[in-house]
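Subject: for your reference before the review

Hello V.,

The reviewers asked for a structural picture of the protein, and I figured it would be easier to keep everything in one thread rather than splitting it across files. Below is the amino acid sequence we used in the manuscript, unchanged from the supplementary table.
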Amino acid sequence: MLLTELVQTSRRLAETRGRLAKIELVAALLKHTGPEEIEIAIAFLSGSLRQGRIGIGYATLQAAKREHAADAPTLDLGRQSRGRRGSRPRPSAGRRCSRPTWVASRAPR
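And here is what came back from the structure prediction:
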């Protein structure tokens, strides 16, 4: 599943008032979500990070932002989450990693 599908569903959920309509939106999303991505999708929709606090705020994300966005959505939910548990910038021997540099290095090319 592409991350953009999850984001669109999240936006529709925020705009929807009725509980049954929200259930239908989530059910439709989960129907075409792979078994290995369901836990990830639920965590995103509930607003909880599987990694816990990652220490990256808005200013860091802005500093790491590329000049040009991708032409089409390419972030795959499962691929982006694999191996990311507990993944965060850590200082190396004697020096600290620049967070914007670390964030930019983790983004897909």
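For the response letter, the relevant points are probably these. Residues 3-106 form one domain. The chain has a mean pLDDT of 79.

Happy to draft the paragraph if you're swamped.

O.
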